[in-house]
# Entry
Amino acid sequence: MSSERACMLCGVVLTTAEFTKDGCPNCQGIFDEAGVSTMECTSPSFEGLVGMCRPSKSWVAKWISVDPYIPGMYAIKVDGRLPIEVSDMLPHYKPRDGTQVD
Amino acid sequence: MSETNDLRPDNANSVENGEKNTDEGSKAVENESVDLNPNEEAKVTEDGTKTLETGENDAGNRVSAAGNAGSEGQNTTGVKRARENSTGNIQDNEASSTTDGEKGPVKTSSEGHSEIKDSAQTSVGKIDQDDDNDNDNDNDNDNDNDDDDDEEEEDEDEEGPRKKQRQERNRFLDIEAEVSDDDEEEEDEEESELVREGFITRGDEEDEDEAAGPERGDRLHRQLDQNLSKNSEEDAQKLAKELRERYGRSSSKQYRAAAQDGYVPQRFLLPSVDTATIWGVRCRPGREKDIVRKLLKKKFNLDKSMGSKKLKIMSIFQRDNYSGRIYIEAPKQSVIEKFTAGVSDIYPSQKLLIPVQELPLLLKPDKSDDVRLEEGSYVRIKRGIYKGDLAVVDQISENNLEVLLKIVPRLDYGKNDEVDADTNTRKQKRPTFAQRPPPQLFNPTMALRMDQANLYKRDERHFTYRNDDYVDGYLFKSFRIQYLETKNIQPSVEELARFGSKEGDLDLTTISQTIRKAQAAKVTFQIGDRVDILGGEQKGSKGFVTRTSTDIIAVNLPQLGMKALEFPISSLRKIFEAGDHVTVVGGDHQGDAGLVLAVKNGQVTFVSDQTRANLTISANNLSKSMDSTPTSSEYALHDIVELSAKNVACVIQAGHDIFKILDDAGKVSTITKGSILNKINTQRSRLTTVDNKGSEIKIGDTVVEKVGARREGQVLYIQTQQIFIVSKKITENAGVFVVNPMNVEAVASKDNVVAGVGSIDLSRMNPDVVSKMRPPQQSAEQSRIGRDVALGKTVRVRSAGYKGQLGIVKDVSGDKATIELHSKSKHITVDKRKLMFYNKEGGEGITYDDLVNRRGRTPSNRIGPSYVSAPRTMATGGMPIGAGGSGPSGLSGGMTPGWNGVDGGKTPAVNSGATGGTSAWGGASTWGGQGGSSTWGGQGGGGGGASAWGGTGATSTWGGASAWGNKSSWGGASTWASGGENGAQSTWGGDKSAHGAGSAWGGRDGGTSTWGGGTSREGGNSTWGKDGSGNKSAWGDQGNRSSYGGGSTWGGR
# Structure
């Protein structure tokens, strides 16, 4: 499954093909607005696979802040940094690469 | 929408009711149906309502029946069945069937139909809830709560349609339509939440007037209606907006707004037992990710297929740090088993609830052992032909995903390319890991010569060859970080040298620093070591190590008088002084030890204990030691080792792996550790041989050579024809030499020396000391000299095991006696103090100590003491007991003691032994005296009671009930004042007695009698004789010189 990537913004894990085809199901609007490609905002390096079945009910979803997103596969840690265009737009963006400690 | 709103509160109420009145699950259903009615009436036709009512009642009854009938284990299925039934019923009604016997068109209008559908759904939801409540009542261990119930409800209400919508949405990215969809759904959800809150706040009131019944329901309902109508209008708008923003996959504005409004710091999300129930489930290690994927798929499929009833699985996840385990977020344990059934590689029986406080750690994004890459750090490449190679991070890409690495290239410059002979075109062959070229810096000349076509020169130092960039000979290539190993990189010196070989000082210093660090890590400082500070502010100071860690050492500097300062290991040096004994702890000479001769610039010169050579080693590789033998090695100096079955040798120099040995032929050789078979334990060896005079030589004996250099030494080992000897006076071969035993003479045996020193008691040899000593007490030790008194005695065992059994002492060694039992033919060994010693004929038993005191005599079996002095009755003129041979007349005083005994003539065992008895004969006794009573005896053990001896009319008791020796005769044939009046001439003592035979005792005229020749300690004149004319007799008048009794000068010939 080396072709899988994780979105650096929401953490969703999809195959590269899915990302290229449809973009990120959660954050594509933001990427489009920022004018960056989906590939720039996704990372092939991630860890901690979460199969999220009920994002609205799950405490895990709240904790890793994927509760507003669709059910699916998410990563707990996503290496990489969002392009500056995107992160500038989102002042409360919390990187998923473990650099920020709450 | 409003209809649903109307209906919801009832559900909520019923839930509440169901929970409150736990015993009345079915009742709750009934209540509900009652509650429902008013609403339904307004909108549904009469018939429809009726049908619904009956349907619901029916369902309610069935449910309660199922709840009651179902045993605990089957509850869920029972409930499910009931639910299905109820659903079926209602739907039947909906489809205008007449299952319940009720007639009438249900579908009077489309409105009615929808109403019915709605109510049917709600009723299903309701019944479900009640089922759940029933369940809960039945098995209380379920950790269900309102949440669960509500979720369940929502499951039924929403999941089905929502799923569909979601999928649609995924497929068509129609933003507008989607938002509205979301809106609706979420509104539903939110409203239900609102409702929940509403009824929760009202729950208290409900408690108060629980008995109100339908009236209460009405009231609640109205209130809720009010609340909701109030809320629903404005809140729905607000919520819709909010949710649109929250589900903002649409724009960053929404994301931003949501993030600002709804930003919740993680500490407020900290889990509680209610919010987060996460189970760790064992699975096959390495398959965690696949299992997570599989389970997620399964969950989605199940959701689709199961329709209304869904398993409550919130999430499934995995962490790389915790292999062999996946985590499932699910409120109920039983769900997991159901869910994971049939999935391979997962072991749901091995699961445990993760403690709430560990959850944040479990979901922490950053692994603690992660290394943050920075420029200049070392990494290793994980794949490709550079797999395993060291690389230096040159740059890190902006998104942190790729790094530009500086690598020593492995190039073959097209040597292995396949060249097509015909067309003269070459086909590049990609090098594989198996046949990769050795790492070498890029050589432009080679490239130019071999493969010119692919080479481009950018500038003097920068080339592009085969699409890769080479600067200064190094390959600069971009790698993804997932293909790099970043943890625990320990570059070897060669690898570092490759990076530093061409560049100047900068890299060399880093290398040296790296190496130094690596070396420093090996240096061990111990608390108490004296150290020199080599750098920093305290340079030149000296101090003591007070605390150590891997690379920081706390040093106390006495001259500064401060508390301990911390220094890196690299800036410290151990201090040694001439005369210290040191052991080498690192480097080539590790294991060597010796005495420090000189210290200069941190270099310590010491003389090795083994080689006697001077070695110079840097101070930090040394540590102070006490013993000279290296402890690191298995074999030490002077060990006897086996080289083969026949060959033995003595280690004369022990290193870490190399040993110098002297074999039995006297040849010195150097061998490795591997050629030594094993070490011979000379302590256990019992080998002996004889010297030229035929005396025995054992290991450890001191021998001297009879020929040649007359070397003297101790025997280390004895081989058949040769003996190994070590001498402290010889330095050659560590003092070891080999000689033939015929050429040596034993000087001293190890045993003799030891025994001689131990046994001499100088104080006993000093007559002055001895004379001042009390009469030698018979100690247990002395008694052991010679034949033990216990031997041959009849004994009875006092200790456990053979307690009470009789036997005969056959052997005595030390404190142990070997006893042959009378009862069975067996020898046992018992502590001799745990025995009672008996006369052969039986009688009274005595302990070993008593036996020793009695000089090995056991008491006879006669009744009463063997020596009985005149009993008191005698004093009144009675006949003395006993037939001593003379019947005392006792006319006028002078009663003599009854000298009795069956054998007659028994005398006390005064001085019967050579050393005198332990009986205290005498002591502070006054002997005789006119009319006085003298105490004969005193405190002595055997001496018996106080006896009054002589005196007019006095009763004298001699002895008493004492065991006063048995066999010795004290003047056996003596007549003791047998003559009565004038006192007969008596002979005290006799032939058999050792007690001065010829003493005249008394006499006709009462002459002076001399009792023994010795002097009495007590001295004093005693009148010994008859009444009136009693003469004075000198009983030891010189006084103070002799001990009375004991082994003293009592009598004697």
The two ends of chain B are 141 Å apart (CA to CA).
